[in-house]
Amino acid sequence: PIHRLPTELLSYIFLLAITPRGLERDPSAHPLARVCSFWRAVILDTPAFWTTISNGP
Predict the structure, then answer these.
(1) What are phi and psi of 5, to 5 degrees?
(2) Where are the chain's structural domains?
């Protein structure tokens, strides 16, 4: 099961799966963050998801 993967590996997989454009507004709103509370925590605890800054609406 996916919960057996180390958090670091799971966050790396998520980084590969999510394009920078998909994170323009709020990483917590991304569909992967809505799968389960564990995935949401991984996304919110991974600083790389917060490096994209949007200057648009």
Answers:
(1) -70, 145
(2) 7-15+26-50
